[in-house]
């Protein structure tokens, strides 16, 4: 009985406690994990919230899943619950992280379509690098068709005979021994259109790839076009071919590279024939050089306008067109060795209808001088129409008087230089502001300048002025003139000079330099925003690297008349009309 009435054994109590704990664990497990996780359960949100809070508090966020082996590294995607930061936020964070970073970043340099052409000059192994010319293949109505109708190109002269020998005209005989045996032709002074184009065909750096071209040539016979319609045709007819040309060019991809600013063409007449001021039927010429698109192009003419920037003067053609260097060198040696008995000479006719002309005074002074040779020109037959008579007189003279023609310039200036005769100019527009590509800007090296006002008033003696020049200086000036002969003649288009540069070579080189400099200025943003077109003649006289102009001693000579409303009686128009009267007379 003692054993039965005592405490229960310890092992039984432990078993009962364990069984009770397992019961409550099952109750809690069933309540929190089975019932709470069932969909729609009221306690699910609470349980999930508690579990998420525990997870955020105790566990790190998992890394976003990566794209396996991406071709381009991708940025981590933005979490839907956390929208990507705004630009302002990113900038602010970057600024806080990099307080010393540069806030402003320079814009990347622009690429231009003409940069490939500029880079060709860097290829030292390419002799044409930076010198390539692309030539437009124009429809024949712009050039060849005009030659087929050559009898219509001038009202008074049948131009067909001058088309022979690639535009040089018929050969000249040498019965009087004035010329050399070869290379001399009866070349018309308005044939530069054809001569230049035919010389271009022989240019050694032509290309069919316009992207490497330093310049683009437009073989339009602008001079012939204006000549055939000047008399008896309305302005619509006179402008038709020019408008047609502009329309054709603007549709070409080559035009779009620079809007035509790398294009150039030739018009073998004075600039005033292409600068009609108004649309009055009575006004002179066509308006090619005033067309907005044409203003972007460079036009080579035998006389340019001092007040406009898109035309450039090139020499009139002479009678001499050598085929090789030896022809030029032999001629130069011959001109050096000549005895010149006349101090000065003049070939020309008076201009009684022009009160500003000094020709009558020059003729009077020559007549009364024992050291002057005069070749008077007038209507009808005259020795002035004979190339040999003119060249013979120039070859026997130290100085050759070159007053203004019907316009600023005259072909005679180049004929006299070809003969080794020192030109005497009376107006800076006759050469000094015209042929700056071909003649030295220091005009005292090769010429004498006597302002025409003194001659007009009778205050200047031509003979005394020329006699005052020291013989050593005369010899030096004559040598300079003779050395310039290659630059003022056009070589035979059917050949090419070996080492000497003729007027064509000088012109093309100048155009290339002009376009190349313009392209560099565009890239470097150095274009002259203060350019004053009315002072174009001053810019032409600047030395390389100079950009600033100012007052000039020749300002009085180029005080441009104000064309009120574009009156067609302005001096430039009259000059153009008079030049046609001169052509009618058949003078040079």
From TrEMBL:
Pfam families: Exostosin_GT47 (PF03016). It is found in: Golgi apparatus membrane. Residues 549-566 have a biased composition (Basic and acidic residues). InterPro entries: Exostosin (IPR004263), Exostosin_GT47 (IPR040911). Keywords: Glycosyltransferase, Golgi apparatus, Membrane, Signal-anchor, Transferase, Transmembrane, Transmembrane helix. Residues 567-579 have a biased composition (Polar residues). Residues 549-588 are annotated as: Disordered. GO terms for cellular component: Golgi membrane. It comes from the Eukaryota. The chain crosses the membrane at residues 12-32. It is a single-pass type II membrane protein. Residues 128-465 form the Exostosin GT47 domain. One of its GO terms (molecular function) is glycosyltransferase activity. PANTHER family: EXOSTOSIN HEPARAN SULFATE GLYCOSYLTRANSFERASE -RELATED, XYLOGLUCAN GALACTOSYLTRANSFERASE MUR3. Belongs to the glycosyltransferase 47 family. This is Exostosin GT47 domain-containing protein. It comes from Oryza barthii.
């Amino acid at each position: 009985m003692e054993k039965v009435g005592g405490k229960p054994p310890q092992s039984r109590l432990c078993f009962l406690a364990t069984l009770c704990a397992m019961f409550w664990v099952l109750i809690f497990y069933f309540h929190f994990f089975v019932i709470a996780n069932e969909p729609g359960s009221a306690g699910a949100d609470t349980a999930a919230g508690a579990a998420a809070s525990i997870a955020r508090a105790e566990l790190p966020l998992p890394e976003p899943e990566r794209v396996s082996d991406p071709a381009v590294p991708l940025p981590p995607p933005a979490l839907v619950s956390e929208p990507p930061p705004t630009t302002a936020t990113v900038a602010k964070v970057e600024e806080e992280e990099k307080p010393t970073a540069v806030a402003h970043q320079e814009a990347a340099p622009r690429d231009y379509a003409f940069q490939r052409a500029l880079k060709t000059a860097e290829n030292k192994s390419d002799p044409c690098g930076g010198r390539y010319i692309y030539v437009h293949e124009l429809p024949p109505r712009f050039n060849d068709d005009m030659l087929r109708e050559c009898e219509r190109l001038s009202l008074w002269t049948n131009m067909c005979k001058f088309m022979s020998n690639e535009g040089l005209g018929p050969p000249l005989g040498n019965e009087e021994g004035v010329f050399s045996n070869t290379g001399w032709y009866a070349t018309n002074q308005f044939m530069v259109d054809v001569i230049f184009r035919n010389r271009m065909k022989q240019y050694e750096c032509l290309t069919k790839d316009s992207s490497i071209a330093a310049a683009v040539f437009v073989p339009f016979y602008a001079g012939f076009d204006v000549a055939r319609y000047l008399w008896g045709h309305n302005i619509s007819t006179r402008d038709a071919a020019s408008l047609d040309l502009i329309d054709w060019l603007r549709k070409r991809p080559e035009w779009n590279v620079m809007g035509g600013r790398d294009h150039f063409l030739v018009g073998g007449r004075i600039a005033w024939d292409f600068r009609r001021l108004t649309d009055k039927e009575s006004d002179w010429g066509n308006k090619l050089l005033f067309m907005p698109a044409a203003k972007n192009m460079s036009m080579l003419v035998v006389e340019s306008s001092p007040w406009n920037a898109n035309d450039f003067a090139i020499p009139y053609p002479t009678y001499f067109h050598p085929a090789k260097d030896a022809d030029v060198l032999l001629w130069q040696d011959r001109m050096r060795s000549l005895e010149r008995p006349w101090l000065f000479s003049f070939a020309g006719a008076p201009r009684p209808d022009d009160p500003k002309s000094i020709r009558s005074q020059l003729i009077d002074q020559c007549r009364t001088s024992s050291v002057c040779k005069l070749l008077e020109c007038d209507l009808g037959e005259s020795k002035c129409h004979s190339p040999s008579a003119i060249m013979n007189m120039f070859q026997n003279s130290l100085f050759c008087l070159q007053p203004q023609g019907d316009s600023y310039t005259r072909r005679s200036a180049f004929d006299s230089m070809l003969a080794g005769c020192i030109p005497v100019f009376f107006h800076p527009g006759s050469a000094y502001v015209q042929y700056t590509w071909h003649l030295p800007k220091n005009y005292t090296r090769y010429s004498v300048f006597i302002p025409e006002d003194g001659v007009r008033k009778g205050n200047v003696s031509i003979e005394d002025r020329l006699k005052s020049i020291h013989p050593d200086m005369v010899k030096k000036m004559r040598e300079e003139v003779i050395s310039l002969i290659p630059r003022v003649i056009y070589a035979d288009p059917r050949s090419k000079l070996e080492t000497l540069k003729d007027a064509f070579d000088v012109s093309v080189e100048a155009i290339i330099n002009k376009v190349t400099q313009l392209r560099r200025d565009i890239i470097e943003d150095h274009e002259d925003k203060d350019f004053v077109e009315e002072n174009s003649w001053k810019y032409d006289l600047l030395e390389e690297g100079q950009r600033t102009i100012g007052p000039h001693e020749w300002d009085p000579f180029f005080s441009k008349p104000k064309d009120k409303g574009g009156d067609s009686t302005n001096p430039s128009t009259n000059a153009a009309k008079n030049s046609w009267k001169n052509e009618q007379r058949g003078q040079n």
